[in-house]
Design a protein that fits this description.
four-stranded antiparallel beta sheet; 7 strands
């Protein structure tokens, strides 16, 4: 989807809790501080992105940013 985001939520990484209560996948994830980001993708698979660039919105459809395996910071989910 190439439409611009209509909503943004600050992300607090959590192993058991999704970004939204209704499990809506993101359109992207802004990462403000470089580091590794472990996410649960919209299809349920868990993946770690290593050395993710800061100041970039990454086009990931994710449900959650896990605390375990994530050391990047200042993240914002875009919907």
């Amino acid at each position: 989807n190439d439409d611009p985001a209509f909503k943004a939520i600050a992300v607090t990484p959590s192993d058991p809790v999704n970004i939204t209560t209704d499990s809506t996948p993101t359109r992207g994830l802004y990462v403000g501080t470089t580091g590794d980001v472990t996410v649960v993708m919209a299809d349920g698979n868990t993946v770690t992105f290593v050395a993710v660039a800061a100041g970039v919105t990454h086009p990931w459809c994710i449900l959650r940013v896990n605390d375990t395996g994530t050391d990047a910071d200042d993240m914002v989910a875009l919907f």
